[in-house]
# Entry
Amino acid sequence: MTDQPVALPLEKIPQHVAIIMDGNGRWALSRGLPRLAGHKAGTENLRRVIRSTVEFGIPYLTIYAFSTENWGRPPEEVQGLMRILEDVIDRELSELDKEGVQLRHIGRLERLAPSLQEKVLDAVDMTKHNTRLTLNIAFNYGGRDEIVQAIQRIIRDGVPAEDVSDEMVGRYLYTAGVPDPDLIIRTSGELRVSNFLIWQAAYSEWYITPTYWPDFDKEEYRRALETFAQRDRRFGGISEAVANRARNG
Ligand code: IPE
Ligand code: IPE
Ligand code: MG
# Structure
């Protein structure tokens, strides 16, 4: 691993980075390999990106690994992606645990094989006291599905309409207690949200790169963070500089 010093102003490190790990299929195609080889290469890269996230001092990372729409892919690919999740847990769990990574799952477990569901739940349980990095794995995740489930639970809980607020809805989402993503990275150049964190991304900054996910390295990660540090996040207001100028006439 190349360990260059982190040259970022610390106050501008995002609290929460979310990544749409896209382009595995095209990465494989460009090398004349089967799509699953792209997913394997993507998984290797994920391992590096998790390490870099810890080194950069970012406390929350969410990764989009399988969407509620990805069931529409050929069955062999879906099976392959399930197997990859299983292998990752088998091979990486103890190392991630040692590094202080707390694993969480966001999405629906129901459609996964019972043995895989158990593996995911065990991994979450085993790492629940870790505090260095919270890693949310979005697997069988859909933003609309998440919101629909939140609405169902709010109704079931008998919450009066006037008590429903922005903050309260947030508490019914999978990401309850997790700050909204400051920065969302999407690899492979697609300019769309693809049902990822659609509620939580209301004021996220985006970094979109043509690089395919397996090639997204630490250098480019650092570039994404540097770009983020230069963004002027106004949240609907006006920037500090403009406000100061207005105050000083
Ligand atoms: C992202 O890569 C991984 C998953 C969606 C599981 P893709 O498989 O979408 O790769 P492309 O977009 O076809 O290149
Ligand atoms: C988004 O990528 C889902 C994941 C990265 C897991 P897709 O490849 O499924 O998105 P679309 O179909 O190009 O929008
Ligand atoms: Mg894709």
Observations:
- The pocket of IPE (ligand 2) is lined by residues 20-22, 64-67, 70, 190, 192, 194 (CB under 6 Å).
- The helical segments are 24-29, 35-56, 75-98, 114-126, 143-156, 166-171, 218-230, 240-247.
- The chain has one domain: 12-247.
